[in-house]
Amino acid sequence: MTTVSIVWGTGTGPTSTASYDTALAAANVHNYNLVTVSSVLPAAAQIDVCGDAPPLGAMGNRLTVVQSRTTRQPGADAPAVAGLGWARTADGPGIFYEAGGSDPDRVAEEITVGLEHGRALRSERRWEAAAEPRIVSEPPAADVYVTAVVLGVYGRSRPMF
What we know:
Radius of gyration: 16 Å
Strand order of the largest sheet: 2-5-9-1-4
Low-confidence stretches: none
Distance between the termini: 25 Å
Helix content: 10-25%
Structural class: alpha+beta
Mean pLDDT: 96
């Protein structure tokens, strides 16, 4: 059975990309080439809400993820908020929904609405209750970029070549 690890982090940096890299480091996925996929959860996947990823392979490998990411520039008046929610069917497969913004309550609501819509699109299946979404926030800063990320990491990394 393959594990999808739910990981998250926040970070700051002198550029948007630097703050993103710092947030990825907090989630322990900064040493991989992230490949973002659409938000479908395979039936055989086990979900592990772990915060930061265990070692998943060699630096530079490709790592498949579903990702929510928000970055705010220096002097912003609101935090960077990222969230990820998921729901599964009674027989195993499911969906993720990612949202980001500046208000944790609005991000949570967007995730709830998105999951409801996704389940309605797949109405031929019987759905279990959605899991509590993981939402993280990084307060704004006067002189640096701030980023929040939440990722669903599919299994281990694989070589690029």
